[in-house]
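Q: Can I see a sequence and its folded structure?
A: Here is a first one.
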Amino acid sequence: MDAEQFHEVLQLSGEHLALVGTAIGIGAAIAIPAAILLSRNASPRRLALGILNILQTIPSLALFGFLIPIPLIGGIGKRTAIVALVVYALLPLVRNTLAGILGVDPAVRESAVAMGMTNAQVLMQVELPLAAPMILAGLRIATVTSMGTAVIAAAIGGGGLGVLIFRGISFNDSGQILSGAIPAAVMALIADEVLGWIEKRFSRYR
């Protein structure tokens, strides 16, 4: 690999990380508040999880294609890719946040209320800290999955390491395919290890 190719790999790796980081950030901002609301309202919980499960089963390339003609969020480019990655990130984030909050011992919750805590204080000082390891596990799953799914973004002009992979497929060049696939796999492994370490730290804190 010459200097020019190395520079391209670095640039596309940065684009790949930006896609995943933006999607996970938006996904967490949507999923965690939604999961908190669902933990308080049992009736819409099954419907919401059912819809997210259905969205998760749509093949990634098909979802990218479905989103392209939609006004405002569709089109060719990074915006559509980020929307698709957010959709895939929602299920693990919502499901794990719900599991974490609902898994808090009712006796602990009742003790906090007996001490005079408001509902907001119980949520912020008791439930979310205790649910943090489960929330982080969902974040870990969503991030690692998105690292792989983001490769497809290149098919709709979203950039990232998929550019090298699709170019390598077009020219039957295994070197280009590997130069895109290996950094994507390495970043996924690093993200998994780092988030796993943070998750263990929170588990000890809990």
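Q: Show me another, different protein.
A: A second, unrelated one:
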Amino acid sequence: MATRKGRATKSTDLEPISKRGKQDHTLQFTSLAHLLTVEMLGEAYHRLRKDASPGVDGITTEEYEQDLAGNLQDLHRRLREGSYRAQPVRRVYIEQDGKRRPLGIPALEDKIVQRAVVSILEAIYEQDFLPCSFGYRPGRGAHDALNEVFRAIVVSKVNYVLEVDIKGYFQNIVHEHLMAFLQQRIKDSSLLRLIGKWLHAGVLEEGRLLAVTRGTSQGAVISPILANVYLHYVLDEWIETVVKPRMRG
């Protein structure tokens, strides 16, 4: 299908991935990085917010678009040759509920590649994520979660509603566990290395480069789906396979 004159989406390239993933939830995908074509990078670029703040490279979308085709070709070449380097995330703080929350702003090319990789990961993991999961998922949101809670309370016999908040969730994801979870579905070493580069790229805060040993930057394009993959294995599947069978009533 076409989303803009002269620019066709590559979503159809991901349909076989989704189909195979849905048919076999134990299938491990060994060849995924080749999907990061110039066309997919272009599609990813056009899906980015154009008014977002620049990262440590200082490059804006306006500057990048001056030679968009050439820049995407060069980015694709570096990805293919393995010379692509993830840049540190620029950390800023925003006020939320009376607290200062850290927000990471990746460099523009990191955003582009991350957006493309998100499309690949969604094709796989949307087949695995459970119906009870609503956050950061395509076609789902907070209102859907509220509707489900309302339905459960009205239709079912509910005595208690338990609300839980994971403090500093994004900042405390354990990299080793996350990569192990990803490897249950992904055996493409090139794609795994790419994700590892973003996790270990570091943070630039007030001119200082800080090493990162855990967490994924809240604000990075790739972070929501990585957080969902982690939560799927450590919480959702645990509740579904261990907790629910023990429940009575």
